[in-house]
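Replying to the earlier thread about multi-chain prediction with a worked example.

Input:
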Amino acid sequence: MSDSSRDKAIAFYVRLYAFLLLSYPHSFRRAYGAQMTQVFRDCCRDAYRRRGVSGLPRLWLATCRDLAISALAERIVRIKSFFVHERLPLMSSPALSCVPAGAPRRRVALALDLAIGPLSFLALYIGTDSLIGTLHAEDGWGNTLVSITPTAFWLAVVLALAWRGQTVGQALLDLRWVADDGRPARWRPAGELQFWCAGLALLLTGGFILLAYAWVGLTWVLTRVFHIGLGLPGIWGNGVVPGLSLAAILVLGLMWLARRRPAHLARIAR
Amino acid sequence: MTKERDKAAPTEGAPALTSAVFQILMALADGERHGYGIMQEIALRTDGAIQLGPGTLYRSIKRLLTEGLIEESDERPDRALDDERRRYYRLTPAGRCAAAEAQRLARLIRMAQAKHLLAPGIVGAPDGGIG
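Result:
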């Protein structure tokens, strides 16, 4: 194998290794990631010198085993530290600018957790209730899947944040409201991709659950008004009027946004 | 383990060091080395029986740094001789006390020998040290 082919093969394995370093906690990766990559590159060169091209896959297998064990151990240490010692490692970004400077960050996070916590139970209730209905042959799998999805989504978000060493409240605190630099105010992710995805999933899931319950509540009220009270067909109470109402709310919301935040809407449209 | 004990050198009452941690301390006993140098030294000294991966190596280094047994060296080799991005590590005075761990192992071997659990000749040193 020529030198350039050898370098390409080594570069491929090193890139793959650097990618897999994402399995370590962020703080560990930041402190040692570059050094670990450098050491792995040296190991690749050494393996190639000793055994030729066949040495690389062998080294790769051994390194993968080491990576899986040590990454899991680091994650366990981090989660243990989070749950047992209550040392809640936070990202270095500042809290919401609406929180007064120097406000007790942990207390704000705790308050948010207490406020948001019931959503977990709500999501679990919707999912399990629908699943039980299906198992008793009272409901179809289609409805169950719709109900279970936000539950699974929510649990995934909570677990992903716990894996990261954060509660939901802390994750929300790390989303910043940027309005003090003259540009239009907007939510901005404070950290890396993992956190951004978790934050987005959190907001979407919360919004989905609230919307679902708004729909159920609205149809319950309107069915009693139109169907039972006025004697109109059931579809007026649980289909036409709630649908038109939600559509009207959506249109009015967009109109308000267009008037108050034109730049923001244009960015969404792009 | 308390924070105070974390920072203490391995002494009589301290828990045994892991094999990887002990090997790293031994590798640094001769002088400062970078991560890959430590790996090479351990593999060489153990005839390839112990080969640390980068993950285990840096987890152990992290533990040793936290416990104050090793420190990062400020001195850098000549750019022409080595990659300037490498970080070198060396033993601290507390790390030098890792000899206590070696003495503990030697005592265990003497006990095993006294109980005829070890074949004669395994421990060659007349004072009972590891031969």
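Strands of chain B lie at 33-34, 70-72, 88-91.

Feel free to reuse this layout for your own posts.
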